[in-house]
Design brief:
alpha+beta; 5-stranded antiparallel β-sheet; 2 helices; disordered N terminus
Length: 150
């Protein structure tokens, strides 16, 4: 079934002892982050969707892109969420909460609006649960707007 939960792999096991109300290296919702993947031999990208100061986590939506080292969001082109379709995955988005400590070697290459990411996440939930989440979509968009105006 499309949209099943996908286990979060990667740097989520990195633990920070920082206790501040903001990440030690500045990141914000909408930031596009790039990192080199040893497995692929190329750079990959993801977008920060939210920050949770209480848990010191960042929501991260992996993007369907890999290639040479990007220096800006323009180097990636259109931001398309990654749908996992290999092996036993069923086409769900790879959206996870990670420790908000941006690992060494990861770099912020720019910031883009989150509306496309919100649409992809909500659309996926609607397919999985067979109902609409119009109110959730509106609240998420309002949250992005309020964070942007903060």
């Amino acid at each position: 079934m499309q949209g099943q939960a996908v286990p979060c792999l990667g740097y989520d096991s990195a633990v920070t002892r920082q206790r501040g109300a903001a990440p030690p290296r500045p990141i914000a919702p909408g930031d596009v982050v790039a990192a080199y993947s040893e497995e692929l031999g190329e750079w990959t990208a993801a977008q920060v969707t939210d920050l949770d100061p209480a848990w010191r986590t960042a929501g991260v939506l992996d993007l369907d892109w890999s290639g040479p080292e990007p220096h800006s969001v323009d180097d990636i082109g259109e931001l398309v969420p990654l749908r996992l379709t290999h092996h036993s995955h069923s086409g769900g988005l790879h959206h996870c909460n990670y420790e908000w400590l941006l690992p060494r070697g990861f770099k912020v290459i720019g910031r883009e609006e989150l509306y496309d990411a919100i649409d992809a996440i909500v659309n996926d939930a609607e397919v999985e649960y067979g109902r609409t989440f119009a109110n959730a979509r509106q609240h998420l968009i309002a949250g992005v707007d309020s964070a942007r105006d903060w």
